[in-house]
Amino acid sequence: MASILEQHQDRFLSELLDWLRIPSVSADPKFHGDVLKAAEYLKARFEEVGLDKVELCPTAGNPIVYGEKIIDPSLPTVLVYGHYDVQPADPYELWDSPPFEPVIKDEKIYARGACDDKGQVYMHVKALEMMNLEGGLPCNIKVMIEGEEEIGSNNLGIFVRANKEKLKADVILISDTGMLANDAPSIEVGLRGLSYHEVEVTGPNRDLHSGIYGGAVPNPINVLCKMIASLHDENNHITIPEFYNNVAVLTDEERAELNRVPHSDDEFKQSIGLNDVYGEKGYSTVERIGIRPTLDVNGIWGGYTGEGAKTVIASKAYAKISMRLVPHQTSDEITALFQQHFTRIAPAGVTVVVKPHHGGEPVVTPTDSVAYKAAADAMETTFGKRPIPTRGGGSIPIVAMFKTELGLDTVLLGFGLDSDAIHSPNEHYGVFNFLKGIETIPHFYRNYAAAMKA
After folding, report:
1. For labeling, which of 108, 121, 184, 291 is most exposed (least CB within 10 Å)?
2. Could you give the CA distance from residue 194 to residue 420 in angstroms, rounded to a whole number?
3. Is the pTM higher than 0.70?
4. Distance from chain centroid for Cα 249
5. What confidence tens digit (pLDDT) does each residue in 314-344 have?
6. Do 115 and 423 form a contact (C-beta atoms < 8 A)?
7. pLDDT per position as a tens digit, 5-17
């Protein structure tokens, strides 16, 4: 006899595809109506699976979708967080199928947001439905899904601080991370922080003819490229003074334990089309991603980029630069150091403006907590293997904020894979992963409720 999940999986997938068709891109104002439509869609699904007090909570930006099910105030409460907004899909021409016309091929769901984070959020919605079909919830659940994660969650902290009683819980559960492989389950226990900036370099007061003026005036694009190149030395060490002052240094034993995760540089290179790995000298690929800070250019532009030729020296050049941070760095500290340094290294003849965008703090979550053990046991039940604790290279700034404002630790029970191409063209999410998440999450609740009762 087919399991309850097998009986309903086609409908679960169909509903997810409907949600993925809504282009909830928070970064682009032209999609604002679609962002609200995606929130309304999720609100309706909350109501269908039996959550109470379902509402769209207004913020200064996009609404937060909230619902709860309190079956017994004496039982533990889990607060689920996720986000319904998605990254821009540009460049559209690099997608094999339109980003907001989801398709399933080779057992993968292709669409913007398929993995990050609509697919993983929807696992939780359907896990609630599964638990209701299988006899009810073992503990209290609150669900808070925001619409601004991809633009820095600027209004989430305000909402959390104003609603501490509403959000009172015992632990936070998030599925916005990944695991090592479908046959190598893992749980992320560390995330890097973030300091993100836009820089502007201005030279002459207008675009100039590169023949008449070339060689006699500073070219902002040339200058910007030189400034960016100077931010790393020959060992790929970041050259900003005091940048590494507070970086947590792991012991040899801790580094050896971190490098126990199954990783192959050859497979890593092959998966992204490289002929060699790259990074800070003296560290492995696993360490470079998990425990070392980084600085990367995320975008750079200026001058003429249209068809054909236009021989100009641009008046301005721009770049977007992000730094991933590790314990015990702080985003405020690194933001100030970057602003000071980048302004200081500008040559005469240009002016530089550094505009900080959003930031977030690095975090390490405990592996000896009741909640972590409940998650590990749940994954062992459904995967048949004990998950490996890992440190992720990405950032979820609100994890540190939840600890500060609500006093709660977070369990990062993610089911994505590095190969899912999140933030890139052809983002996808495995059907296996989506269904495995729906299967695993109820085990977490049961394990957690039983352990807290014991």
Report:
1. 184
2. 22
3. yes
4. 24
5. 999 999 999 999 999 999 999 999 999 999 9
6. no
7. 999 999 999 999 9
